[in-house]
Amino acid sequence: MSGSTRARAGAFSTWTTRRWLRVGAVVSLTALTLLGVTGAWMLHRTASISANLVNVKSPALSTALQLESAVLNQETGIRGYGLTGTADFLTPYRQGLTDQATSTARLTRLLHGDEAGLMDLKAVRDAAETWQSKIARPIAAAPAGIPSPLAAERAAQGKKDFDALRAALAGQQKRLRAERAQAAADLSSTMTLRNWVFAAIAAVIAALSVLVFEGLRRGITAPLGQLGADAIAIANGDSGHPITPTGPADLRRLSGEIDFMRRRLVRELAFAEEARVRLHAQAADLQRSNAELEQFAYVASHDLQEPLRKVSSFTQLLQRRYGGQLDARADQYIDYAVDGANRMQVLISDLLDFSRVGRVHHELHEVDLATVLRQTLSSLSVSIEESGATITHDPLPSLIADTTQMGMLWQNLLGNAVKFRRPDQPPEIHISAAEEGPLWRFSVTDNGIGIGPEYIDKVFVIFQRLHTRDAYDGSGIGLAMCKKIVEFHGGAISVDPDYRDGTRITFTLASKPPKAIDPAAMPEATRADTGQGP
Questions:
Q1: Rounded to whole angstroms, how far apart are CA atoms 110 and 125?
Q2: pLDDT score of 257
Q3: Per residue in 228-271, pLDDT tens?
Q4: Which of 276, 298, 299, 366 has the largest CB neighbor count within 10 A?
């Protein structure tokens, strides 16, 4: 092995799993992007040639043939009228003039930008004008009833001029046929090339899939399997079994650390009982810590309501009684205290509602979503009337769900749609519903300010706000509560990233009731909150 080869192998040996995955993802995405651009270009090229053939070349040739037919009708009519003087022969002549004008105008539009085609059309028009000015129009102007003397006098000249017109028409049609044949040949070759390109794309994707699968197998699955097998051997009592480092650098490092731990455990085998006792003590501490954490969460979202209510009440009383009697800064401080207490009260109330989802409200029975929606619209009637909102909906089904939670879901989604509206137009909100197997898919669509693509996941995280409180009020819990309600009912919720005229939130609900919650499995603070404790 050469020095450069060993250097490259040494460099690759330091790559971690994350780096391998990152490089693989970049290479794969780059290859797929290039393939997608190539495929899109081929489709565009095929469509362009096909449109040119269907919309320009073929209609142009057909119109040129119609133009020739119109000229032949004129010649037939003029020849018959000149020889017999019968006025009926002028009818095909005049119709031919009309058809000639129509065909010429259409050819002018179809050949726009085609200099050679327009020159051929000009040659046809010039030849037709020569024949009409010298032969057709003078004969047509002769009185009816008797043969026109001009027909006999100018027969040779007429034949010469009309032959020139026919030659111009033949040249035009020859060019148009050649161009249509070339366009058809281009389309055929482009379609063949397109098929080969898409076959190559499919082959590259297949090869890329094989490479990705093989890379994952060699770089992650096989090393982890080897590590797992070694760990199982050690766990089964073979403490002297060595762990073989394989795979990327971080997995080899992990294997080395585990092997070091194995050797240390062998050295400290005499202290195994002490470690077991320590482990039991730690487990007890963890269980006690979890119980204390649950109790703290319950107190923070429930028992703090009363003292906070007192703080809010007394600060409001202080504001009413002493407002205007102190200096401006004191009034400002009082306002800050009242606003802070009110915000904290709203926040704790929302947090309590959020914590109760799935614990307190879990009475599952058949719920008519249309009825719940009407009740929600009644609750939001003031904000709907003030904003001038228009709310429409598809027929809504009846599902097995919790009525209270469904009301909270509609209220949060519709309240957000009304709140985050555009300042220059009233809200227009539509609720759609469609059944998809065991699920129902709902969409709440509005014409509001919308949600940026970078925030479509962030908005469902509790306490995450996209705007300041000065712009829009709220605690940042609404959509997190919606997510919790939907997931409790066996569904999923997301923001449609492709909708750009506002916001479209899509969620699913299961037709069958989700698994019931066992109150005995709840923590003590939760059972006390639901009235199911001892």
A1: 16
A2: 78
A3: 777 787 777 776 777 777 777 777 777 777 777 777 777 776 56
A4: 298
Are β-strands 428-436 and 390-393 bridged in parallel, bridged antiparallel, or unpaired?
A: parallel
Tokens encoding 493: 């919720």
User: CA nearest 350: which of 482, 213, 525, 208?
Assistant: 482
Alpha-carbon gap, residue 61 to 184, rounded angstroms? 13
Sheet strands (E) in 394-518: 398-402, 428-436, 439-446, 493-495, 503-510
* DSSP three-state, residue 313: helix
User: Residue 246: CB partners within 8 Å, gap ≥ 6?
Assistant: 222, 223, 226, 227, 252, 255
Q: Coil, strand or helix: which one is 321?
A: helix
Q: What is the DSSP letter of 396?
A: P
- CA 338 – CA 126 distance, rounded (Å): 92
How far apart are the C-alpha atoms of 26 and 208, rounded to whole Å? 12
Residue that is written with structure tokens 């409790």 in the block: 488
Looking at per-residue confidence, does 68 or 294 come out higher? 68
Burial per residue of 266-295, b for 16 or more beta-carbon CB atoms within 10 angstroms, e otherwise = eeeeeeeeeeeeeeeeeeeeeeeeeeeeee
pTM higher than 0.85, yes or no? no
